Recover the amino acids of this structure.
């Protein structure tokens, strides 16, 4: 090989390395609330609007802007007076490729004696890729507030990207048994999170709906998860399907496949079989759900 050809190859190799470094740097510095996990998880504020409780007079104003990095919302109230209320409505979106959990809502209020800030509880929600969630924050001007003063606060959302592996149907039965006090022991999934999973499954699934108090929902789920050995194949499919739904809500199905099928595809196939009474498919889909739930072995 000629010396010139070798130099050209070296230059091209250095160019590729530099390009990769720039791309990596950009991926780590641009857009969204970054979460520390192996796969890309990215939550961003994508829209915000404001209103207030003024009907006749128009004295005070509430303004809100999303930060350049989409990590927070800055809210400003001008000319506020006692009992004035401003309302901030915003949308957050999972712009990544993995489920992200809403851990907390942080309201950074440097003037708690002058303004009271409260938010709709979004904690314990999972956002699937491309899914959005609406939030509401209310600010109220208190009596000690200064006249013709400008007050500001920030809204931030704490998230985590809980990566893991699918859990077996036995794991989920244990969680509900402990939550209901049927057995003693420690649970890996808190009752509030279990209820949040069931609340999210209900509108998304055409097969399952959980209603009533928290314990009533837990009892409904446990009944589905533990059919007897002599139960019909339909009930056995429903039990494994619910376990798969719970794994999906927990964010433990991403990146896994069975026979080339994702959890979403298996859930859809299972529900279609149940909804259309395709009894000859029940065992197939039960086995697919079962295999997926056992991928992690725990």
């Amino acid at each position: 090989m000629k010396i010139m050809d070798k130099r050209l190859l070296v230059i091209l190799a250095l160019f590729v390395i530099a390009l990769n470094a720039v791309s990596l740097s950009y991926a780590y510095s641009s857009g969204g609330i970054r979460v520390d996990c192996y796969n890309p998880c990215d939550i961003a504020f994508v829209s915000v609007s404001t209103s207030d409780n003024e009907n006749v007079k128009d004295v005070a104003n509430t303004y809100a802007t999303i930060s350049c990095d989409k990590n927070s919302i800055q809210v400003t109230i001008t000319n506020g007076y006692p009992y004035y209320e401003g309302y901030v409505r915003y949308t957050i979106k999972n712009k990544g490729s993995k489920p992200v959990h809403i851990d907390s809502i942080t309201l950074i209020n440097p003037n708690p004696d002058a303004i009271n800030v409260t938010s709709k509880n979004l904690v314990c929600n999972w956002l699937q890729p491309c899914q959005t969630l609406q939030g509401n924050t209310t600010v109220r001007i208190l009596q000690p507030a200064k006249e013709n003063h400008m007050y500001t606060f920030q809204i931030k959302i704490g998230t985590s990207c809980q990566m893991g592996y699918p859990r077996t149907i036995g794991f989920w039965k244990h969680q509900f048994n402990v939550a209901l006090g049927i057995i003693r022991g420690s649970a890996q999934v808190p009752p509030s999170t279990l209820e949040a999973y069931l609340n999210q499954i209900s509108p998304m699934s055409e097969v399952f709906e959980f209603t009533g108090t928290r314990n009533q929902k837990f009892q409904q789920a446990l009944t589905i998860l533990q059919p007897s050995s002599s139960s019909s194949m339909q009930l056995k499919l429903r039990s494994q399907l619910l376990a798969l739904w719970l794994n999906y809500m927990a964010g433990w199905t991403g990146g896994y496949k069975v026979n080339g099928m994702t959890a979403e595809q298996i859930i859809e196939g299972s529900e279609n079989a149940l909804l259309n009474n395709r009894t000859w498919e029940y065992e197939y889909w039960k086995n697919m759900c079962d295999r997926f739930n056992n991928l992690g072995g725990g």
